[in-house]
Fold this sequence. Notes:
Blueprint: H1 6-9, H2 12-25, H3 29-42, E1 47-53, E2 57-64, E3 75-77, H4 83-89, E4 93-95, H5 113-116, E5 122-129, E6 135-143, H6 151-163, E7 166-169, E8 172-175, H7 198-211, E9 216-221, E10 226-229, H8 231-236, H9 245-255, E11 256-257, H10 270-277, E12 279-287, E13 295-305, E14 311-320, H11 322-343, H12 347-362, E15 366-373, E16 378-386, E17 399-400, H13 406-413, E18 417-419, E19 447-455, E20 458-467, H14 474-535, H15 541-572, E21 580-583, H16 584-595, E22 601-606, E23 612-615, H17 617-633, E24 639-647, E25 651-658, H18 691-701, E26 705-708, E27 716-723, E28 726-732, E29 735-740
Parallel strand pairs: 22-24
Antiparallel strand pairs: 1-2, 1-6, 2-3, 4-5, 5-6, 7-8, 9-10, 9-14, 11-12, 12-13, 13-14, 15-16, 15-20, 16-17, 18-19, 19-20, 21-23, 24-25, 25-27, 26-27, 28-29
Helix pairs in contact: 3-7, 11-12, 11-14, 14-15, 15-18, 16-17, 17-18
Catalytic activity: ATP + protein L-histidine = ADP + protein N-phospho-L-histidine
Main location: membrane
InterPro entries: GAF, GAF-like_dom_sf, HATPase_C_sf, HATPase_dom, His_kinase_dom, HisK_dim/P_dom, HisK_dim/P_sf, PAS-like_dom_sf
Amino acid sequence: MPMLDRAVLDAPPRLHAVSQARETFAGMPVGFDAIARMTARLTNAPIGMISLLGNAEEELIGRYGVPQWFAPDRHGARRHALCAYVVCGNDVLAVEELLAGEVASDDPLRDNPLLVDGGIRAFAGAPLRDEAGRPLGAVSIADTVARAWKPGELAVLAEVAGMLRFEPDGEAARATLIEEPPPSGQTGRAWPSSMQAGFAGDRQFFTALLDSLQVGVVVADSTGRPVLVNQMSRERNRVPAGLSPEEAIASICSRLRHPDGTPFERHEMVFVRALVDETVQRAESILHGPGFLDQHVVAYGKALRTDEGELFGSVTTILDVTDRWRADRFRECNLRIATMLNHADTVEEAGPELVSALGEALGWPCVALWLANPAEQVLDLVAHHVGPGIALAAPIPARMERGASVTGECWQSGALLWVPRYAESRYARGPGAQEFSPAGDEPLPHTAVAVPIRDEDCVVGVLTCFADTVEHDRPLLTGLLEDIAEQVGYFLARRHSMELAMQLVRARDDFIALVGHELRTPLTSITTCSDLLLEDEQLSDDARELVEIVSRNVGSVQAIIDDLLDLAALESGHLRPQLLPIDLVAVVSAAIADLGAQAGTRLHTGLPSTVMLAGDARRLRQVVDNLLSNAVKYSPDGGDIHVELVAGEDFAELSVTDNGIGIPPDDRDQMFDRFYRGDNARHNIPGSGLGLTLVRTIVQAHCGTVALDPSKKDGTRILVRLPLHAAATTPAEGQPGVALRYPLRGAFRPLEPNRHVPD
């Protein structure tokens, strides 16, 4: 809260004006109580006050919801007046939490009875001024819970305070309700000073107040007869000018529909229901009419009672939630289209459901999806949606050329095209008007929209929509349509990329199959001839050495071909691992034994007695052989090679570590790619670049993972993880089969060394 300024509070001119106002307002508490009550209800606050602040006391000339024990005679001490803070600031004041933070010992808020005993926590007020702008008091509201006051609520306070401006007039003084002059130039009328004319003054005040609100308001008497329909209700419901409240309600009721489309009966109107139910919360309805968009509204009704509890009417507030309703529908439509595109193989397959979903969300009679045909330079109609009850003069054309029509011009320009008065535009009279033409005497659409579908900078299609209502929500609608067009564009780009990838895979597999078949035959002949020559005892030593070189190189080529064919078969799914219960320790030990002693290298092993898992022993042996071969190959100067196998509760980890040339940091992300070799080994160490690719493919086929240890700088450490647990599945070739229970994924995180399977 701001600090109190006693110079402002005690200013003689202000106190003199307060004294005049007090004399004028004397004897009129009932009218001001009604204003306080209406102000509180319009701002959804439990407490409303209209106060004059004198030199020693606060006078509540209007109050609603104020505890009876506080100022029972409408007079209270000035030190307890919350309106004093408004008077000092002479501006609208809003406080979300009165006791937020520390309160000074001399702050009047510490012992304010409205806070201590009344529980008030939030406060807002607007100054009540005289014609010179001096603050005489305040129109204020309060709540017993902390709350953030909305701008609309503060605007109501300011408007009420402005209408209650005090103006002295000659010898007598009176309170004047200032109304904004209507366009005709008529001036406002003063609040009568007599008690007998109080009701007329209240009515004039409330009419001016409610007409200034941005929500619809309907006030009815205790018999359910409408006595006031504010300006916003009339404008939003297109009520003809000059109709009485009763006639305005009849006009609205004739177009009002339940959410299921059934018409409203008069006894179902909220202002009537509130007289019986006391409170009506969020009653939904639709305002329907030809030529304009359906309006979705929610209404809240409340019975009005006197302080003695006597029913004297009801008040209904009506909120237009069309924008929010459409935004919700559009989000659902967007999600639905994203889902169907995610499951569709082609746009042609998803097209009919896509345009239907979009037409239903928009509520428009026609939606059409076109895709470009580059070969013939035309747009082909993929799918279209025509609303129920709509008859067309001719079928929508199967093809559309550039220009002339809304669709063709959008394709030609590559920019969104919005035509707000389609029937008056050149598009309705040209040859392209055939893209949507109602049969008979049905009117042409009010609005046409065409949105380009892009694949990067290329326009690959157009989404065209026609509306039979005047549309004003252009940003909302174009946003939805551009989102849908973007989704279709992404889908087309993704499908194009997938088709190219599939073509590349097929070409690669065909090439590998061709190479394998065409090379194996001559290699077999070369190998056979080499073996026969080597068996010849009369072969000279020089010739024998040359034949051995040929045989060795043929073996290398044969190994590369075998690896390529294995990769192609594993990646395509034609070759699947035969998962059987095996002892991984036995597989690793056999590979180490076959490796034998290598010049300059020292092999260190850390293996448990046994590790049982579900795997293909032959394929896992390929993994171990490749890892050991790489460790030896890339340690040209010898060194230590460590092979460790650790088993946890759910998976086993095999690590192979060497102190060789290592892998440069820039090459590590690509070391498992086919044919890729590091810069430090590409030119001086022989190899095909297929070993680690084959390792990764086999490990992934076992639902495992393989990774490089990024912390290993002087050499290389590779970690393979394989799941231990499996569930029974169909036996393979008469042997008990197994299936992996779950795949393993994750980063490089080795197990603790002491977590071994017990011997």
